Amino acid sequence: MDSSVTLGRLELGRATVTPAALLNGPGARERSAQNQHQHAGPRTGPLGCVPLSHQVAGHKYGVDKVGILQHPDGTVLKQLQPPPRGPRELQFYSMVYAKDCCDPCLLELQQHLPKYYSTWASPDNPTELYLKLEDVTRRFQKPCIMDVKIGQRSYDPFASQEKREQQIRKYPLMEEIGFLVLGMRVYNVGSDIFETYDQHYGRGLVKDTVKDGLCKFFYDGDLLRRDVITASIAKVQSILRWFEKQSQLNFYASSLLFVYEGLPSFSEDKFNTLSLQKNEGVLEYNNNIEASLSTMYSLHKKGCMQSHHPEMQDNSTWHSLLTQGDTDEQETSTQEVPHKVEVRMIDFAHVFPSEVHDHGYIYGLRNLLKVLQQIIDD
């Protein structure tokens, strides 16, 4: 499948984009108690879905017009954005994960993305579409998460002058640094809490402080997780190699999602034992999904599986993929995994066909790798 032709079907003309609402809260570091969300009674979305509790950046459900939900089956639902961004992102995922895809470039790209299962809609509101995606944090008990926007420009070639100026004002150093920390949360081993940093923290980082700013993500309150940095570098290098080979897609305002296990390995075994003894049926401990939600899903599963958009939705596909994912997880758990680290590309509302290398994204990746290596060396 020719990605240029496929993406070319989208309306690539100039569009007026409403600026995304800023995240609430000050730019300074915020600390949240370990069980804050467990006792707060999360707002329930369609069919028992809840807002993604560990989201560190982007549109948030209940705060912005669109947002991300967590489905009781362990996947995440990303609400489709208004045109042209939403349809463009849907087209991108559909192209990369097409059943008949035989493009080696796209097939290799799949390993760097969250798995895409289908579109999803609630029977109560079948016109409100979501992208049904893998929850990259699902296998982590204390997931430390960082969202880093990559590239020298956070606006696409079809953005209005107003949009360009707005994005430049948000972070004037984007062209020089090549990446921007949009948000992160880090598990502090000693205090047993997560420390969170929002987008204002990232925008406050300049060339001389960006290394220390990134370093905070890998510090657990006791030591610097050099093992995680090393594993992260290897994964970013793999993504860079893909970009250096391909010249058919350009990415703007896209991010890398970093995830690692914040729970020390010696505590992890104890944590697993206690969790299994307490409740073997809990679907998602780290994401604050209670057993009742798992039960609710089993009751509504038949309704969830109904296709409200037959031309776009294939629930049998994502169901089989989920089953395979669970099998892979069981196989992985029986093996020794020294470093639990994930680095995935996310956010594809501004991906366009191209005939040249994505120099802006490549520049950002190389500079990010340089800073990560400096942290290791120091």
UniProtKB/TrEMBL annotation:
Which InterPro entries does this UniProt record tie to the protein? IPK, IPK_sf
Q: Where is this region: Disordered?
A: 25-44
GO molecular function terms attached to this record: ATP binding; inositol-1,3,4,6-tetrakisphosphate 5-kinase activity; inositol-1,4,5-trisphosphate 3-kinase activity
Give the Gene3D superfamilies listed for this entry: Inositol polyphosphate kinase
Task: Give the reactions, separated by semicolons, that this protein catalyses.
Answer: 1D-myo-inositol 1,4,5-trisphosphate + 2 ATP = 1D-myo-inositol 1,3,4,5,6-pentakisphosphate + 2 ADP + 2 H(+); 1D-myo-inositol 1,3,4,6-tetrakisphosphate + ATP = 1D-myo-inositol 1,3,4,5,6-pentakisphosphate + ADP + H(+)
Family indicated by similarity: Belongs to the inositol phosphokinase (IPK) family.
Protein name per the record: Kinase
Query: Which organism's genome codes for this protein?
Result: Bagarius yarrelli
